[in-house]
Amino acid sequence: MAALVQGVLGEAGTAESVVTRHLPPFEQVNLQSALNAWSAEKGRQVEVRGVALPPHYGGIMLQQLVSGEGLPPLRLSAPGVVDLPDGPGSTLACLRLALLLVTDAAGRYVLLVQGPSEHQQELTVEVAGLPVGQAQSVLGELDRLRRRLNVYRGQLLEVGITPMGAVSLTFLDRPATSREQVVLPEPVLDRIERHALGVAAHRAALTAAGQHLKRGLLLFGPPGTGKTHTARYLLGQMTGYTRLLLTGRSLAAVGSVTELARDLQPAVVVLEDVDLVAADRSFGPGGSPVLFDLLDAMDGAAPDADLLFVLTTNRADLLEPALAARPGRVDVAVEIGLPDADARQRLLELYGRGVPLQLTEADRDAAVERSDGVTASFLKELLRRAVLEALHDHHPLTAVTRQHLFRALDDLLDSTQSVTRTLLGVGVDPATLPVGSPQPAPVGAGWVAHPGRPGRRYRP
Ligand SMILES: Nc1ncnc2c1ncn2[C@@H]1O[C@H](COP(=O)(O)OP(=O)(O)O)[C@@H](O)[C@H]1O
Ligand SMILES: [Mg+2]
Prior knowledge:
Blueprint: H1 2-14, E1 19-23, H2 28-39, E2 45-52, H3 62-67, E3 75-77, E4 81-87, E5 90-95, E6 97-104, E7 107-114, E8 123-128, H4 132-148, E9 156-161, E10 167-171, H5 186-201, H6 203-208, E11 215-220, H7 227-237, E12 242-247, H8 254-263, E13 267-272, H9 290-300, E14 307-313, H10 316-325, E15 332-335, H11 341-352, E16 357-358, H12 361-370, H13 376-393, E17 400-401, H14 402-413, H15 418-424
Parallel strand pairs: 9-12, 11-14, 11-15, 12-13, 13-14, 16-17
Antiparallel strand pairs: 1-8, 2-3, 2-6, 4-5, 6-7, 7-8, 9-10
Helix pairs in contact: 2-4, 11-12, 11-13, 13-14
This protein binds adenosine-5'-diphosphate (ADP) and magnesium ion.
Adenosine-5'-diphosphate binds at residues 181-184, 223-229, 312, 347, 376-377, 380, 442-445.
């Protein structure tokens, strides 16, 4: 292998410095897209050679091949590829460890591409055989192509943290939540929409008038009232935006995610349940609270960037001091409260669709009245329980009657069931939970990751 590289480079090329670029692992699919486009450009010939390295070897440096020294037992092989999602329904075969033997206007030179592996989590591209300035130009050209072809632009992505602490991005399907499925008082939903979607519609006019586009929206209220649900609705509407979703541990990655969002703007960054990390310390050298990092990242973003931050929390009281000390990060805070009688009526209708309910007007009114003080997710769960009650009496399901609905309601409202309610996240007052205790996971809050389907192959 060393002989192959040295043969391509010749004596002069072998004497040049090797230039290395490190990239975050999630860039692997963009790098491959860039390499595919770059290799296909006119006047360039690229031969791809796979490098097989026995397990337990961390990786190689191109310098080792150029000098032929300190080499692990390597073998030339067909290039190994890892099939990575490059969209919500497609994948791209990406080189794992390969040499690219290039001939173009700059001469003959070699690229070594090394994807993240068990032993080393970084993605690296190295150039050998060119003067440093020219090697940098090659890397710069690949940067431009990566940016232009970025597969994450305009997509809905869940941000994760790998066990090694690196940021990962998973494509999600577009949420199907429609406006009429979001049961909130009209002025509340209207205000949220105006802030999130309205600015987008007036982007050009706002910029022309010298007004900033960056904005922060805080949705707060008890668990199970629809904060996540509303965020899903907004994300479903904001097609064309790069949409990044951070929950739990991944909130600590807010700094690098904000940078990514700026590169891929217009973008939305949804920070779910920020109170859960409010007091956590980040891994950084300062060990500052994650919440501060989060607010600083929001502030660091360029004001003229078309960025929307949506924060959700069950504990606005915990956030208030931090927000008050850093004004301007959140410009609109909207309380999502417990549903009023009208909303409860609409929720019963919404979640009762498809259920063979046999209720009189009076039964419905009684259910609405008796459920005063519960959350929206409680009513959703109530209908599920009523169906179960009906199935218990009669299988297959024929009708869900007043008896079934009220039995389910009695059971859920029973004071001895408060732990069950907490576990279901259907009507618990977060203020009664000790600070820092895990919050209940709301029913049906899961975001569905797209499994991805096999698709295109790398092209060189
Ligand atoms: N305002 C609402 N309108 C319609 N459905 C709702 C509403 N609030 C909650 N739900 C239902 O309850 C589930 C849990 O609510 P969620 O949005 O996760 O609550 P949280 O406010 O804790 O984020 C949602 O997936 C949705 O099905
Ligand atoms: Mg939520």
